[in-house]
Amino acid sequence: MDLPDLEQLTQLTHAVPRGVAVALGGLLAVAGARLYPVAIMAPGFAAGIGAAVLLPVEMPPEARAVLAVVLGGIGALICRTVERMAIWGLGAIITGGATVAAWPVVMGQPAPWWGAAVGAAAGLLLFPALFKVALKPVTALAGAFIVANALDQGQNLWLIGGVAVVGLLVQLGVGGSKDDDEDE
Question: How many domains does the chain have?
């Protein structure tokens, strides 16, 4: 049996990841906001399953399967909770810091001690809503960048913009019929 030609092998290793990257970028562009919760929870679910599989205790396979699902669910819930707390914390830090930075410019004096607290509280309340609004355009743009870079067109703004616009329109449901929404 002959070894594969090195050039063919190199072309294959470049083509497969490129195709996968284009597919994943396209999926992120058109469905990123819908897939976001799954992507956040998947590592926790996988860790829970891994913990159940590696648990050094004798038990029937059915019990181990149930344990894997339960631990996977707990892991997914932990990841989702940590993600939400991170969004709240990031919002509080960003708006608290922005308040302290903008106060001297707007008011002409240093920010009082309570300025950061008020800004942080506002961010704690507002940032999760802003995050939800920004998720669709951000995932559409991220997917467009992945597609463009996978095609060695990372500088092609027309390609990036086109994929991002199409992805955003698909995520927003523009052009879909009202009957499609009733099926869900």
Answer: 1
